[in-house]
C-alpha cells in the first residue's frame, strides 16, 4: 500500500492504493469466468450444472449426493477435475468437453470492454482454470478475442489449477512476463494471493451490489484481503479509470 492519498474515482470501484501504481505495467492478465464477463451473465452456473451432471453420471449418484460430492472435491483439490482425476482416474479431456458444453447466447458483445483492453499498453493474456476452447468461445461471444496475445488454460497448466504456485510459475515461464510489471484481474480472492506475493498489481472483480460489503470489510482492523489492491464491480469502468491515470 502506498502512502499517497488514493485518487478520486467515480463509479462502483473500491480502492486503497493510488491508481498510478498501474504506470509501468507491461502485461495485463485476466481470469475468464466471472471476470471478463459479469457475474450476472450467469454463464458459470451452466458450467456448475454440467459438473454436477458429470459427477452424477460417472459415480452413479443421485442429484443431491453428486452436488455434495462435487463441492467436497472442489474444496479439497482446488477443482472438481483435479479431485476426480485423483480419486477416480477420469479422462480429463472427456470431463472438459462435457462441462463446457453450454449455451453462450446469453453473452452479448462488449465493444467498450474490448476498446479498453486494446488501449492498455503492453501484452494481454487470459489465464483460466477452464480450457482453451471454452475461453475462445467466451471471448468470441464478447467480441474481445483479437485483443489477447494468448490463453493459458488448465491444460497448459498440466491440469494443476490456480491458486497453486506452480501454475503461476508455468504461466510466467511460458509468457516471459515480469510480475513487477504486471497486473492481474480475478473474481476469486484466493487466486490473487500468489500474484500479490510475486509483485503484481491485483484487482478483484465482484458482483454488482456487493460493493458495500467489501468496503466494510476493508475498514476492519484485521484486513481479510491484504493481497487485493483494488476491487471493482465494473471491469470496463475500472480499466477506463486506469487508462485515464496512466495515459
What brief labels describe this structure?
247 residues; alpha/beta; Rossmann fold; DNA polymerase, domain 1; 2 domains; 7 strands; disordered N terminus
Q: What name is given to the CATH topology of the largest domain?
A: Rossmann fold
For the termini, the CA-CA separation is: 22 Å
* Total number of helices: 10
CATH superfamily of the largest domain: HAD superfamily/HAD-like
CATH architecture of the largest domain: 3-Layer(aba) Sandwich
Strand and helix order: EEHHHHHEHEHEHEHEH
Give the fraction of residues assigned to helices: 40-55%
Overall structural class, as computed from helix and strand content, comes to: alpha/beta
The proportion of residues in beta strands is 5-15%
| Overall tally of domains | 2
Unreliable runs: 1-11
Q: Give the biggest beta sheet.
A: 7 strands, mixed
Strand order of the largest sheet: 1-7-6-5-2-3-4
Mean pLDDT: 89
Number of strands: 7
Shape: globular
Please write the CATH class name of the largest domain: Alpha Beta
Radius of gyration: 18 Å
What is the compact description of this entry?
The chain is of the alpha/beta class. It has helices at residues 43-59, 63-77, 80-88, 92-99, 111-119, 132-142, 165-175, 193-198, 211-218, 235-246, and strands at 13-15, 27-30, 123-127, 150-152, 182-186, 201-205, 230-232.
Amino acid at each position: 500500500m502506498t502512502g499517497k492519498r488514493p485518487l478520486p474515482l467515480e463509479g462502483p470501484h473500491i480502492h486503497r492504493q493510488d491508481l498510478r501504481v498501474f504506470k509501468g505495467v507491461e502485461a495485463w492478465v485476466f481470469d475468464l469466468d466471472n471476470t471478463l464477463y459479469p457475474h450476472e451473465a450467469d454463464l458459470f452456473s451452466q458450467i456448475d450444472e454440467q459438473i454436477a451432471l458429470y459427477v452424477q453420471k460417472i459415480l452413479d449418484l443421485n442429484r443431491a449426493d453428486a452436488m455434495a460430492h462435487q463441492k467436497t472435491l472442489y474444496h479439497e483439490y482446488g477443482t472438481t477435475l483435479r479431485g476426480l482425476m485423483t480419486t477416480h482416474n477420469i479422462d480429463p479431456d472427456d470431463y472438459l468437453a462435457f462441462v463446457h458444453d453450454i449455451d453462450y447466447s446469453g453473452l452479448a458483445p462488449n465493444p467498450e470492454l474490448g476498446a479498453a483492453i486494446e488501449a492498455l499498453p503492453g501484452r494481454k493474456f487470459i489465464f483460466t482454470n477452464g480450457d482453451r476452447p471454452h475461453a475462445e468461445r467466451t471471448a468470441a461471444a464478447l467480441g474481445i478475442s483479437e485483443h489477447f496475445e494468448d490463453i493459458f488454460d488448465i491444460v497448459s497448466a498440466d491440469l494443476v489449477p490456480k491458486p497453486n504456485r506452480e501454475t503461476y510459475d508455468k504461466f510466467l515461464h511460458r509468457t516471459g512476463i515480469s510480475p513487477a510489471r504486471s497486473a492481474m484481474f480475478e473474481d476469486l480472492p484466493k487466486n490473487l494471493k500468489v500474484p500479490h506475493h510475486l509483485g503484481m498489481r491485483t484487482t478483484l472483480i465482484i458482483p454488482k451490489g456487493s460493493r458495500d460489503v467489501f468496503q466494510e470489510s476493508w475498514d476492519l482492523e484485521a484486513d481479510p484481503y491484504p493481497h487485493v489492491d483494488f476491487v471493482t464491480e465494473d471491469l470496463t469502468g475500472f480499466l477506463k479509470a486506469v487508462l485515464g491515470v496512466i495515459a
